[in-house]
Amino acid sequence: MTNETEVIKHISFQSSSDIFPFYTKLSDRFIMTKFVYDFTGDFEPLFAMIGLNMDGEMLWQYQIDQENSMDDRLYDIYEMTSCANDDFLICGEFQTGDKNEAGLIMRFNKEGELLWERHYRAYDDFGGQRDCYLEAVREMPDGSIVGIGSMQQVSEFGAEEDFWILKVDANGCYGEGEDCDDLETNQWLTSTEDVEEDSKLVIHPNPTSAELTINMPEMISGRLSVTDATGQVVMRVLLNHTEEVQVDLGQYHAGIYLVEVVSESGERYMQRVVLY
Fold this sequence. Notes:
mainly beta; Immunoglobulin-like; 2 domains; 0% helix; 55% strand
């Protein structure tokens, strides 16, 4: 044993952030974020990282520059982790000019190429977007991805945060073949099990192969949402003094869906629908 240590190689970095860098170790290299090597631009990068070999030599650099951004986007990175095939994942929060925060997951290959970037947005009962973020992400043995974080809700005590766990496939999508660049999630519902149905909401035909007619108990202003068995909101309709509305579920997979109507005054009506 010795108290002496030896520096094998030292690399000078220009810091682009006062946040300590995240890093992850792959089979033959390290990936680091929040530092930029020889960066000489006029603006601090929104997001930056480098890949190093085990001898400390820089292999590649990746960055998103503020001057090339199409909007007022911001990235906050909370964790990096490696995948079984040496891809790696980054999670955190993404923010645009509307100042609403969305959960963020990005997947890169070991050469620093961005494979995909997904934003996961949460909405309240009236269609308003609520802040959310993901602070940990892991690849599961089956190749799916699980993210853990928080999402905001509004209660009688004001804004609060709820624990949030999100599971998506290897492409960051809820289901195969979906358009999933920006995904919406209902912050309350995680399953259609144990839903207390309300007979005041009349839906026919049920079961259905596609089209539904939904009759409200009264003229309602608010919103109607349709949620699948995984908790994903697949449809949202704004109601303006509406007593009857037609929706078409023909593009979705067979299964059990939850139709929920929430009025502006807070009344909630729910019914299950079987799609075959």
